[in-house]
Every structure is written in structure tokens, then in C-alpha cells.
Amino acid sequence: MSEKRRQEIEAKRAKLAELRKARADRQKAEADRRTSDSGGPSIARRDVDDLVSSLIGTNSRGDSAVDSPVSSVPGTPALGQINLPGPSALSISGRLSRQSDITSDTRLSLGTTLIQSQNGATESLIEREMTPRVVPDLIDIEQELFELPQKERVIYNKEVQTMEVETEPVAASEDEIRERLLREREAAEAERIAHEQELEAESKQLDEEIAQEIREMTEEEKLSIFSAPEFLDFVEQSTKIIQRALNDNYDYIRDYTIGAESGPEASEGRIKSICAFYDERWTKNRSITDIDWSPKYPELSCASYNKNPAALNEPDGIVAVWNLHLLERPEFVFHSQSDVLSVTFSPFHSNLVFGGTYSGQILLWDTRSKHLPVLKTPLSAAGHTHPVYAMQMVGTQNAHNLITSSTDGTVCSWLVDMLAQPQETLELVHAGHNKTSEVAITALNFPDNETTTFWVGTEEGNVYQANRYDRAGAKAGLNSYDVYKGHAGPVMGIHFHPLVGPVDFSDLFLTCAVDWTVKLWRAKSLAKPSTVVSHVYPLYSFDEADDYVYDVKWHPTHPALFGTVDGAGKFDVWNLNHDTEVPVVSTTVGSGRALNKLKWERKDGRRAAVGGSDGRLYIYDIGDMALPRESEWTDMQRTVANVASGGAHANGIGDDSARVVAGR
Question: How far apart are CA 528 and CA 292, in angstroms?
């Protein structure tokens, strides 16, 4: 690479030397030319002077020798004829005459001038040598020192190619200038007036258009707009968003530089009321019959309602989906032609809500649809024909069924996408009943991880175990040999212990009834079914209530915690590791009217939803009570062992000496 660069430099140096040599040659030639020019003009000047003198001397012939010295000089041409070199000569008359003797003389050189003159009889030829002008020998050398940009290619067409030449304006007079300024001012004023008139006309047109647009609408036009489905949907959605933002309890002007304030948050041994859902239009004069929490959105809960006897044009039953961020009205309202007695969210499809009605129909609503159900079971003997008070979804994401039960002892299994007829139908009958063999089911529950065996509470106060299918040692249907006897009235609620934590308590379940009691049971092992009638008695009976106990639920995360609601409007929270005689927290909800249902939040159980006969859905926060310690499971084991060894009586009600207080 350096060798190539060196060669380029040498070539440039050679070109530079040639240029310098050419410049020196040009300078030398220029100097020679100047030298020759300095001597040449003097000779030519003398020739011109001689010619002028000869002419002047000819015109002044006859004068003295002093006045015309030229004529006395020998060899001066005579006045009559002047001969110039060349093919012709000029005579005095101005005509050209041939000079054959001159033209025939081929001995004349290029720089010789001959003048023929006649003075008397004397003729002579004067020969003058003319020195030629030296023309320098110039050398043209072209050398490309740098690349010039290519010239733009110009294409001409057949049009006038002349350029506009600006001529100097003629200086105008003062009057003309004044007149021109006046004309320009008048033109500008006229243009301004025209522009103002145009703007005024446009403004007037806009005012007319606006007045046409904002004119007062007629009542028919207003009614057509207000009743349009698009307008109603827009108002519904936009107002929900605004109300959610207004109900947000976040303090937007909180100053974090100030120390944290101790707010009225729920703590150990205290519960806090969050809100009470109520809608004047939909829930007035109705009672809540069932409650459930959304499996996907922790802020959503649903409640089913019975008939409003004062509103004949409204649907008999409704299901309202409430949002913790929308307190004034429900997020969704679903309609039913009959009282809705039970409701549940689908744990596998967050948009689906199932409801059991007083007429026996099973309804399916979709939050993506309108108020009416998207699917429903027919009113026929293939399904339920009696009130459906209990339902539960069992199975997995890919294989699940909806299990429903009615007061005529019928248990049906449904596929969620086909409600035309049940997949399975099971009749629970008891041969030992006096008047009828039917078992009137009021409550139903499956243990965790169990899809075949379930327990039902009945109107007679007994609890029975039943199977959906035949299994080893047991047939499908009601197991009439094992009778869980303990309540003296209809069983209103039954719930198995959730399968959480290091210790399995899933064989424990709670029941509540109208006999003012809550009882703790241990389910009999399925591996050893009875062949003769045998009674199973409760492990313990909680007799704190002063009214009907309508519902009982285990806490979803704490092993020793459960809650109850009763007809006196009390919401009680029990902790078996703390006390088995009295609840750790007891609060009167609302106005003290009867509470029908209780449901814990699915995720962590911090919130509980309770509803009753006043049509209000109350949300409570139990705070840190929902957080179990690591020792809660071992403490619960000791508590259950102490309760079981306490020797509870056959009716489930023991003396004061038989009661065991655990965890102290």
C-alpha cells in the first residue's frame, strides 16, 4: 500500500515539474515578444510619416521649397501618380489602376515595400525592408489537477430561450408616486373591507349552523335518543367507571413525609365493616338466599334474592353481582322467572354464574350477555321439580360437573354446556321413613378432592352420606345405615374442613340447624361401611346461639377458625384453639334482622360476606385473625383430641364438665 502511494506521489511531482517548465517557457516567450514590440513600431511609424509627407507635398506643389520640401527631394513621387505595392495602385482620381510591371515582379519579398515616384523625368524605385512582428510560440498543456463535478445536462425545448432583462425604471415624478401610493392604499382598504365582509358572512353562517344544531329537541326526539340501546350501554358503562373511581378510598393527597397513622384497620380480636351493598330498585323488599365470591376477581361477589311482593312487574328472582369498588349499584343484575334460592360462580369459568330456583330450574347466566339466562333446564320430570336449595361444582378444569339437589330427594349432575337434560339423576330414598321414602335435602357438601361421595342435611335434622356411583362395599344412592343424628330440627348448613396445611382435617365437618346449635362431626371412614343401622354422634356441640343458626362455614386458610350467622342478626367468629365455648368475636350486623348466609373470600379469607332478610349484603374484614400461625395445625390436633375424649353425650350436648376448652 505504501509503494503504491509513493508511485502516485512521484507521478504528481513529475507533472508539477512539467507545469513549471511550461510556465518558464511561456514567460521567456512573453519577454521576447515585448522586446520585439519595443523596436518594431518606430520603423513602421517612419513609413507612415513618409507616406503622409508625400501626400502633403503633392497637394502643396507650386509653393516654396520651404513649404514643400518633399517635392524637391529626389525620388519623391510626383503629384500625378502614386504607386503602392501590390497588384494595384491608387491614382489621384481615386481609381485603381493596374501596374503590370509591379505585379509581374516576382522578386519582391514578403517584407519589401516598393514605391514608384516620378519627379520630372526621373523615375526611381524605393525599396524598404519591413521587419515582421515576432509571434511567440505558445505551448498548451492540459493537466487534470482534480475532478470537476459533472455538468448538469440541460435539455432545451422549442420555446423562447431569451432571458428577462431588467431595465432601469424611469424615475417617476412626485405626482406619479403620490398617485401610485394613493391607489395602493385604496386597493388595500378595499381588500380589508372585503375580507371583513367575508369573515362576517362566515361567522353569521356558523351561528346559524350552531343554532340549528343546538335547537331544542322535541319530546319524541329525546325519547328516541334516551331509549336507544347504544345510549343506554354507554351510560351504563361510563357511570360504572365514574362511580368506581369515586368509591376508591385511596387518599390522593396523603403526605408520606408524615409518620404513618394508625387507621381503623381490623386487627386481632376485632372485625371491621367494609360496606353494605343495597340497591333501592333491585333489592328493596327482597331477602338474600345465597352468597358466593368470584374465583378470579376478589372484589366481586354475588347474591341471590327471592321475590319482591310489592313489585309485580319486576322479575321474581334476581342475582346481583357486586363490586367492592362500586358501592351504589350492582355490577350486573340477572333475572329469573322464579325465586333464586342458591347461586355459585363457576370456579373454572369466571364469566359464568349458576342459580337454582324455587321452581326447580337450573339457570346459567353469562356476564358477557344481558340480564336473561343463556341456558336453563326445562320444567320437566327429567330434572328438578322442587326447590333447589343446594348446589356445588365438583371436578377439574377439563372434567367437572354441577351437582344440584332439591327437597324431593333428587340429586342431578349437569354438564355446564348442556342443561337440556341432566347427565345423571339420583333419587335419595330412605325406607325407614313413615309417610314417604323421600329425603328432603336442605344442604349438600362434598369434601375436598372428592367427587363421588357427599353428605346431605335434611329437614328431619339427620345428616346422611350418599354416593353418586357404586363403589366397593357401597351402592349408589343414600347410605341409610349410617345416620348422623344430633339436630332436633332441619339442617340449614353443612361444610367440610378445607384440605389446607400440613395436617389433614378433611374428615371434620360442621352443621347448623334451627335448634340453635352448631355441631362438629367426624365423617365415618368410607372403607368400613355399616351393614346395620348405626348412629353417628357429633364430637362437640356449640350452644352459644339464641336463635336459628342459618349457616356455618370453615375458614379457607385457618384450621381452627369458622363463622356462623343466626336469626338474631349476629355474625360470630369461632377459634377452637382459643375457646370452644364462646366465639372470639360476635357482632350484630345491620339492624339486627336475620342473617341467612355466610361466605368467606376464596383467596385468603380476610373478608366475609353475610346477607339476610333485609336485602343487604354486608362485607366484613377480620384482619389478622385470618393469618394462621405455624402451630395452629398442631394446636388443632390437640383440640380435636381433647374434644373427642371429652365424652360428649349421644345427643351432642354434654354437661359443663364434659366441655373441653382447648388452647389455654
Answer: 35
Smallest CA-to-CA distance from 563 within 508, 610, 507 is with 610
**Count of CB atoms within 10 A of residue 653's CB?**
18
Burial level of 292, CB count in 10 A (0-12/13-18/19+)? buried
Residue-by-residue DSSP string for 543-584: ---SS-EEEEEE-SS-TTEEEEEETTSEEEEEETTT-SSS-S
Beta bridge partners, 318, equal 305, 335
Over the stretch 430-442, which tens digit does the pLDDT of each residue have?
A: 776 656 667 888 9
For 466, what's the count of Cα atoms within 13 Å in the CB-facing half-sphere? 27
**The cell 505558445 sits on which residue?**
138
What is the number of other CB atoms lying within 10 angstroms of the CB of residue 554?
22
Across the range 275-292, mean pLDDT stands at 90
Residue that has been written with the C-alpha cell 357486586 in this structure: 322
Among the listed residues 605, 589, 597, 571, the one whose alpha carbon sits nearest the alpha carbon of residue 302: 597
CB burial string 477-515: b at 16+ within 10 A, e below: bbbbebbbbbbeebbbbbbbbbebbeeebbebbbbbbbb
Per-residue model confidence (pLDDT) at position 143: 66
pTM over 0.85: no
Q: Torsions phi, psi of 474, nearest 5?
A: -145, 145
Rounded CA-CA distance 556/551 in Å is 15
Determine the pLDDT at residue 645: 82
User: What element of type H or E holds 179?
Assistant: helix 174-213
How many Cα neighbours within 13 Å face the side chain of 222?
6
Pull the grid cell for residue 255. Answer: 403526605
Name the pLDDT band for 523 (thresholds 50, 70, 90). confident
pLDDT at 344: 94
Are the beta carbons of 595 and 550 closer than 8 angstroms?
yes
In degrees and rounded to multiples of 5, residue 259 shows phi and psi of: -60, 155
Q: Residues, the chain, total?
A: 664
Please state, in angstroms and rounded to a whole number, the distance separating the CA atoms of residues 340 and 634: 41
How far, in Å, CA of 209 to CA of 213, rounded?
Answer: 6
DSSP-assigned states of every residue in 288-340: EEEEEE-SS-TTEEEEEE---TT-SSS-SEEEEEEETTB-SS-SEEEEESS-E
Q: How confident is the model at residue 18 (pLDDT cuts 50, 70, 90)?
A: confident
